[in-house]
Amino acid sequence: MVKYFSCAGFLKSSWDQVFLAFWQRYPNPYSNHVLTEDIIFREVTPENCLMSRRLLTKTSRAPRWAEKFLPAHMAQKAYIIEDSVVDPQGRTMTTLTWNISHARVMSIEERCVYRVNPDNNSWTEIKREAWISSNLYGLSRAIQEFGLARFKSSITKTMKGFEYVLAKMQGEMPTRTLAETATVKARETALAAKEKAKDLASQAQKKQYV
């Protein structure tokens, strides 16, 4: 039994910009879990397509109930293979990624196609598909649901990371990260509370002299 998921989105940048950002997207504030990226091979086909394979190392703590099925060193990290084919003439980029660690417990295969948005050629359309499976007897359905929820959550971070890198490439100020926004809000709240406390103290002091 395999759980299938698909979705589509877009980036408000040209395909050429997105293609360049793809190779520069790490590090960014939304990808702190990506530890390393290594090129295994890269070649240009007779059709002038660029083919690449990379190995990514990520922090990916397995759920506590799954840790007993994994060696200690594998429960903290995940190793991902990423294949990509870039067709500069057709202006498409197709990526296929899958995990080679934790695969005994859960396997996630993702396919993304980046192409020029047909309604706005200055934007890039992304179609994403995922196949999630598990061969762990008795727990496969629960594991697939867990994997799907984690995958959906990662899409938001991936898109925000892309937008951050694109903004830097285009010389714009990237929007605040969630952590930065939370810090600013906390400072504003603390400052407002401090001012209110001063005001209450001032009013209390005035009452003493009345």
What distinguishing features does this structure have?
7-stranded antiparallel beta sheet; 4 helices; single chain
Describe the structure in your own words.
- With 210 residues, this protein is an alpha+beta fold.
- It has four helices and seven strands; from the N terminus they run E-H-E-E-H-E-E-E-E-H-H.
- The protein has a seven-stranded antiparallel β-sheet.
- Mean pLDDT is 84; it is low at 177-182.
Shape: globular
Q: What is the N-to-C order of secondary-structure elements (H for helix, E for strand)?
A: EHEEHEEEEHH
- Beta percentage is 25-35%
Mean pLDDT across residues: 84
Which regions are unreliable across 5 or more consecutive residues at pLDDT < 50? 177-182
Radius of gyration: 23 Å
Structural class: alpha+beta
Spatial sequence of strands, sheet with the most strands = 1-7-6-5-4-3-2
Beta strands, count: 7
The description of the largest β-sheet is:
7 strands, antiparallel
| Count of DSSP-assigned helices | 4
Distance between the termini: 79 Å
Helix content: 25-40%
Please summarize what this structure is.
InterPro entries: PRELI/MSF1_dom, Slowmo/Ups. The protein has 210 residues and is an alpha+beta fold.
Task: Note the topology.
Layout (H helix, E strand, L loop, with lengths): L1 E10 L3 H8 L11 E11 L5 E10 L4 H4 L9 E11 L4 E8 L7 E10 L7 E10 L6 H30 L8 H32 L1
Antiparallel strand pairs: 1-7, 2-3, 3-4, 4-5, 5-6, 6-7
